[in-house]
Amino acid sequence: MIDVQDKLVAAIPQREQLVARCRLLAEGARVFGVPIAGTEQYPRGLGSTVSELSEFVPLPRDKLRFSAAEALGWPPAAEADDGRRQLVLAGIEAHVCVLQSAMDWLAMGYAVYVAGDAVGSRCPADRDAALHRLRDAGAVVASVESILFEWCDTAAAAEFKTLSRLLKEQMRSA
């Protein structure tokens, strides 16, 4: 979760939808046991992670570099334990911190997925350009729902009912 902070979110068009999609992704990650990490860009000036996401990112890493890779200590020590080589990114701004983070992780050989409906920029054209550039660079751009169903894999999965409930709850609140 990259820089979903109070003052940054306030400048994003359709901010409520963006935060809701980030929250859905985080809730789904929790259901499927996918680790969640987060960053805050210059929190003294830009505020902290929005309250809707703070329970999922209780200890976000402060950063000044636009890329989150260094702030999150990449590659992580846990990589040796479980061999994870994929990252799913959400946050803001798509054309700055999300883009530079993804490019760094792609250069390190990671498979990078960007939740296209859970990233934003102040200017929609910047967001769109970033998503095109990320796709061209080798990142997979997908919707939050698509990512969650890929994690689930089958309606026979124990997590499927929980996922269905999360999706229905979000549809009601949208």
Give a verbal description of the structure.
- Residues 1-145 form the Isochorismatase-like domain.
- This is Isochorismatase family protein.
- InterPro entries: Isochorismatase-like_dom, Isochorismatase-like_sf, Isochorismatase_domain.
- The protein has 174 residues and is α/β, with parallel strands linked by helices.
- The protein has a single domain (6-173), classed as Rossmann fold (3-Layer(aba) Sandwich).
- It has nine helices and five strands; from the N terminus they run ααβααβαβαβαβαα.
- It has helices spanning 6-9, 15-32, 43-46, 51-54, 79-82, 94-107, 124-137, 144-152, 160-173; strands at 39-41, 61-63, 86-92, 111-120, 140-142.
- Helix 7 links the parallel strand 4 (111-120) and strand 5 (140-142).
- The model has no long low-confidence stretch (mean pLDDT 94).
Q: How would you summarize the topology of this molecule?
A:
Elements: H1 6-9, H2 15-32, E1 39-41, H3 43-46, H4 51-54, E2 61-63, H5 79-82, E3 86-92, H6 94-107, E4 111-120, H7 124-137, E5 140-142, H8 144-152, H9 160-173
Parallel strand pairs: 1-2, 3-4, 4-5
Helix pairs in contact: 2-8, 2-9, 6-7
Pfam families: Isochorismatase
Domain Isochorismatase-like: 1-145
Protein name: Isochorismatase family protein
